[in-house]
């Protein structure tokens, strides 16, 4: 490893300890809070848009955020470890198949939308979902047995009206066939 790579790694380690950078990828909608100095005033400006590309080069890593402002597409490139970036917040995860989304430049309106990535359930969520599904199936079984009892009390029902009788039995209103 040469001296420049060594210095880059040391600087990257120093900068990373001060700031928490979230994991984000192209297609994600992010809010980048940027420190802006205007004369003697210092303020934080929020820039929200879709990440259309990332460049991973250690300390020189950057990303491009695109937004539509007043009907005009605006792109801004940010250095990932720049001191002018106050914070980065991921608003929503996008599900895309490409690393660079430059094709969004040619699109507008609905065709420029990006599908949202579905979150996978954790083990705790799965067990809770399985329990609620089991409770739901037990409730359905109880309701079906009640419908069967109601159908028997309804008397003889012709074949074509059986489905309607079963539906009305579920509602609690039963009509006898003539």
Helical amount among residues, as a percent range?
A: 25-40%
> Mean of the pLDDT scores?
82
Any idea what the shape is? elongated
CATH topology of the largest domain: SH3 type barrels
Structural class: alpha+beta
> Describe the biggest sheet?
5 strands, antiparallel
The separation of the N and C termini measures 93 Å
What series of H and E elements makes up the topology? HEEEEEHH
Q: Tell me the total number of β-strands.
A: 5
Number of discrete helical segments:
3
Give the second-level CATH assignment, the architecture of the largest domain: Roll
Kindly provide the name of the CATH class of the largest domain: Mainly Beta
Short description:
This protein is an alpha+beta fold. The chain has helices at 3-18, 123-154, 162-171, and strands at residues 29-38, 41-55, 62-69, 72-79, 85-92. It has 2 domains: 3-112, SH3 type barrels; 123-171.
Q: How would you describe the overall organization of this protein?
A:
The chain has 178 residues and is α+β, with helices and mostly antiparallel strands. Helix content is 33%, strand content 28%. It folds into two domains: 3-112, SH3 type barrels (Roll), CATH 2.30.30; 123-171. The chain has helices spanning 3-18, 123-154, 162-171; strands spanning 29-38, 41-55, 62-69, 72-79, 85-92. Helix 2 (123-154) crosses helix 3. The protein is elongated, with a radius of gyration of 29 Å. It starts with a helix and ends in a 7-residue tail after the last helix.
